Amino acid sequence: MKLTVLGCSGSVPGPDSAASSYLVTAEDFHLVLDLGSGALGSLQRHIAVPQIGAIGLSHLHPDHCMDLTGLYVAAKYAPGSPIPRIPVFAPPNAAERMALAYDLPIDPGMEEELEFHTWQDVQQIGPFTVRTAQMVHPVPAYAIRVEHAGKVLVYTGDTGPNDALVELARGADLLLSEAALQDENPNNPTDLHLTPSDAGEHAKKAGAKKLVITHVPPWYNRVTQAENARRTYSGPIEIATPHAVFDI
Questions:
Q1: What sequence ranges are listed for the domain Metallo-beta-lactamase (predicted)?
Q2: Of the candidates 9, 100, 153, 216, which lies 20 to 30 Å from 33 by C-alpha distance?
Q3: CB 159 within 8 A of CB 144
Q4: Percent of the chain predicted with pLDDT > 90
């Protein structure tokens, strides 16, 4: 598998990065995990819209899904359209939520361009076996485990600390973990996001072989957040940056 970072800015787009979006590729199949604000532009630096095999949305906050509205326009109106419907795996009621975001009638909404599916515990998406587990967040949110040819990528999405993430990430070759909060901040909200130490602790408990820190808001420093993860995790740690590529 190859992981390409399309956007890694946490909570909002930043001056040098779109919000959350990641491209996972194997056997010429392209799976996009999240398509947050600004990410559709970044995606087109790597593949064309008709090359998208499927999309998986961790949850329906705008920094993880809002560029689906632009994708709908491209799929409907760009030269060569209409293209085959793009499967979208998402939390419940995603089709209705995205129709409302674009002020479309609920029926058909975006369903003529995008084919919405609700996440199951496990599903086959192209060459990937994809498993999910519900996380701790104010809205329904899922961590996503992608398996292919004996290799495992796990993406946390957005979550507070929880044991389900440890179990889903068990033995992962790469854990792509949010770290949106700062360590030792007494004002950190509960059940919302991870600190770097939280990310490292989950990676350690899961036995993940590599930790990649992502979803750092633009008001914090990515390098500092990654360094702080070393407080709890002794394995290799890298930083997600726009258009970085990781071979898994």
A1: 18-215
A2: 100
A3: no
A4: 98
CA-to-CA separations, 176 to 81, 87, 94, 247, in angstroms, rounded = 34, 23, 23, 13
Buried b (16+ CB within 10 A) or exposed e, 160-184: bbbeebbebbeebbbbbbbbbbbbe
Overall size of the chain counted in residues: 248
* Whole-number Å distance between alpha carbons of 178 and 136: 13
pLDDT (tens digit per residue) in 150-196: 999 999 999 999 999 999 999 999 999 999 999 999 999 999 999 99
- Is the C-alpha dihedral spanning 163, 125, 33, 1 positive or negative? positive
CA 123 to chain centre: 17
The Cα–Cα gap between 2 and 33 comes to: 13
Nearest of 153, 215, 123 to residue 2 by alpha carbon: 153
Full set of structural domains in the chain with CATH: 2-247 (3.60.15.10)
